[in-house]
Amino acid sequence: MPIFVIVIFSVALLLRVLYQKYRIRQQIQWRNYRKMAVQLLSISAIYIVFLFPWTILYTAYSAGLPSSIGADYYSVSSYLSYFVVMLTPFVCVMSLPELRKKCTNILLFQYRPTRVVHPETLTVTRLNPPRALSIMPNAQ
After folding, report:
1. Where are the domains of the chain?
2. In terms of pTM, does the model score above 0.85?
3. Where does the record place it (predicted)?
């Protein structure tokens, strides 16, 4: 049930925003809603891909399907259901274009700042004239 609720309400939120723009006769500028659309649809896709098969098998087993049918796939899909929790933060982060570019540069080792060494001349000027040092013998 939670899978259907998450997917349906994510798509409903996107459709609600689009309908409001249509209702007040404003043009839909996709660059303003791209982040939201990508994030909602990506999270919905993760839930459908990883949890939907497991949910269907679980429902079928509850309805009376023999447990020998699809038992191997059921155990694998129940293991894959944990990936939803692990992948959701990455989907949210990857919807940010600046951070996505930095992450891909770091992961692919493309971020190599060029360090150029230039010669530099230093001029030293004294503010005070040199003083003569006098060493006093130890008084005993």
Report:
1. 2-107
2. no
3. Membrane
